[in-house]
Amino acid sequence: MHIDNARELKARLLSGVVQASSLDQPTGVASVGISVLPSGGADGPRYGLAVRYSGNRGEVLADSARELAARTAGDEVDIREIGLVQALTAPTEPGTWAPGALQAKVRPLHPGLSIAQRDVTAGTLGGFVRIEGSDGLYALSNNHVLANSDQAALEDPVLQPGPYDGGTAADRVGRLARAVALDAGGGNAVDAAIALLEDDQVDLEYPVGRLVGWTDPDDEVAVEKVGRTTGWTKGRISAIELDDVAVQYPVGVVSFDGQIEVEGDAGAFSAGGDSGSLVYRPDTRQAVGLLFAGSERGGANGAGLTFCNPIGLVLSALGATLVL
């Protein structure tokens, strides 16, 4: 269907379940967005309704979506049970990944490396930005990676590698400079922060080379990322404009609107510790999103789904421009 029709279905579905959800206050995930379907060829991109759910709250939404599909949209309604959605810092207990180059101390800095505020386990350095009025160079990642989910103070040290990967005070590469606050009341658009680097000699290369810009995705494009835990992975955008993505943080559940969903080509696109990775189109070398969360399941072969903030919203919220 046309994207405008998909948006209309999304609004209809939400209008039917919001009142019941707000009254009962059940728990779980109940997200609705625009699914990006396999290409329509000469007719251009095809869209449908994306419903992602878990728990009691999600069941209410899923039941309504199934009724809507039976009446109108049929197979253009993509309903998936996804389990818990979590911010993807590294776990606090030992994991099963093999140590790699991205988890080591590396200079000069480059995208994909382990990085974190001193009280966080580890996340990923997504890329580099500048802000107007400053000559400094800044590292880009998530709030929950560089600002400890709003618990850090400005000027707090940022380490590479992150503490979970052995980073200590001697591995400081910068200090927290700016973070977009997370609102527990919902309606968040981004989980983003930047750290002012002490050394502006960095490597801007990604696996596909240097990026040339950024774009808003609107179809089922192939994407990639390089992250601290799973390294270089490939996938595709499976949904856009996904609202009410409820994410479990160490400080509680935080909800996001207007998000991008990515499904891995071979297993999960990301795992704990990949938060902060910059997601990009390999064909055009354009950034599309900042990775910040993932679900337990819902993707191909039982793997989880990955969620990203649109990069345009990230840059706008931070008052930043990508360094290319």
UniProtKB/TrEMBL annotation:
Protein name: Trypsin-like peptidase
Organism superkingdom: Bacteria
Entries under InterPro entries matching the protein: Peptidase_S1_PA, Peptidase_S1_PA_chymotrypsin
